[in-house]
Amino acid sequence: MIWGRGLAAAALLALGAERASADGDVDIFVGLGDGTIKYYQNDGTKSFMVPTEKTAVGKHPFYGVDVGARAVLSCVDIDGDLDYDCFVGESGGTVKYFKNVEYPGHATFVDQVVAETHPFFGVDFGTNAAPFCERDFDGDGDFDCFVGLADGSVVYHKNTGTVTAPVFAAQAGAANPFNGLTVAGNAVLFCFDIDNDSDIDCFVGVSDGTISYFKNTGTATAPAFTLTNGAGNNPFHGVDFGDDAVIRCVDADFDDDMDCFIGNALGKIYYYKNTGTRYAAVYTDFSLDASVNVFFATQATPLTGLQTAPMFADIDASCSPHNHCNGHGTCYPPVQCKCFDGYGSDADLTIYRSPDCSKRVCPAGKSWADVPTTATTAHALAECSDKGMCDRTSGKCACFPGFTGDACQRLACPTSKVGQECSGHGRCQSMKVMATMTNALPLSAATTYTGAEATTTWDEEMSYGCVCDSGWTVGLASGETQEPEYFGHDCSMRHCPTGDSPTTADNELDCNGKVAAGGVGTGAAGNLCHVDCAGKGLCDYETGACECFKGFWGSNCANTDALAGTSSAAA
Fold first, then answer.
1. Is 303 within 8 Å of 7 (Cβ atoms)?
2. What residues are paired with 249 via a beta bridge?
3. Kind plus residue range of the DSSP H or E element containing 298
4. Strand extents, DSSP E, 372-418
5. Which terminus of the chain has a lower count of CB atoms within 10 Å, N or C?
6. Quick one: how many helices (H) and strands (E) in the chain?
7. C-alpha distances in angstroms, 45 versus 26, 296, 322, 349?
8. What is the pLDDT of residues 467-513, one digit of tens each?
9. DSSP structural state of residue 374
């Protein structure tokens, strides 16, 4: 016999029409009247549960836990970390909170006992508190809670916090959709879109063995529940399940509609299969059919004790279809790998994410060219900056010609020598740095090109160029020369020695007041011009050596002999 011994009234808590188990099936917790919790691992399939009880430490995540009496579970990812946490109500009126501190494949629930971590810390709901916290009742993207009580009333605590940091606030009067609505006693809710009209309705198990149907006559964001019993309205009209009926529904046969299990105080668990559709449910009793009711054994041998309350949740997640996330991620429902950084995590910027975390993600930088989103917003982050291809094996960008950097995020400086930027005769600098340099061409006073990286100076750390080396000081000030020794966009050319022409009266080396190449800066007093070979020879820009004209000699051709003319024209 697969089922172990428990206490009596059975209740099954499902997570809506979705399948709860990440390994394709649903597993079951059973809260008991003595305050303990059993765990049954589903060793079956999506369409047929085969629950096997686990009783050992390390196999049973609630092993040894005792919450008091009449444990009723409601498990949901209340803190947005992609695993199930559990609220557990008990007869004394408190709702305990057990946070899952591990991942779904190895769940470990830890009782939270301080206000900082327990959203219901110190709240006394009343006798036989039965929480239901698995739905977003107001459409704000987080889970809210109803709590049924022994007197048949239902209290509502709205989540005024967030998906990751819940804060529950009691709603009184008209703010509670169940205000003024009660059942005979021991209200235990299970809510989902029963009539498929895109809002949430509720079944409520009652102490007298009946199930009441509360139809949502409001909206998905502002529910208003109306008791809708009677033939043709309540699918369970006229059915008596025995004392303390507790209904829990799940898609037990994987046919895209909700089937329902109903427990009672006698320890039996009934199975009503939806033989209709998700649009028009028709519940048919299959309780005595051993081929489909996994709780069939309870018909002859009821679970002993009182108030058993099972709950479906996935805690044995298995991503075997994704090769267990290839060691680069964690498995979460439903059969989903949450990949680590660099393999497609939520923080990674990429156009491609491998579902099994087998492919690498490449670094991201500002896109060189994209579609603006506003008049001043463009260049969003993009993998390889949209100027390279990502190698999914290595996680490295193969940049297009002219671009470099781990994310292809900057221009490559030109060169005439493979492997040496600026031909080995210069420094590759960003425009941001160049703006501050007085020796960067075109020459100008030091300035800035920064401060508006999100708009006008978006490329301040992306556009790069060469600042060529020089054996003399380059600049516009006194004693500085307006041309560097090495020049050209890639610093591959070399100026020849400078000199003043020996055949003219003017000083060609005087650059005082002369506008430097590029038309930006002007030479100060004492600033020097550079005149290759004194204007009396041809400069070999590859070697930086002068070939002097006839009659002129010296490294800079500034010396004359008897053959020299008397003017540059004569040369």
1. yes
2. 260
3. helix 297-300
4. 381-383, 388-391, 396-399, 403-404, 410-411
5. N
6. 2, 36
7. 8, 18, 18, 36
8. 999 999 999 999 999 999 999 999 999 999 999 999 999 999 999 99
9. B
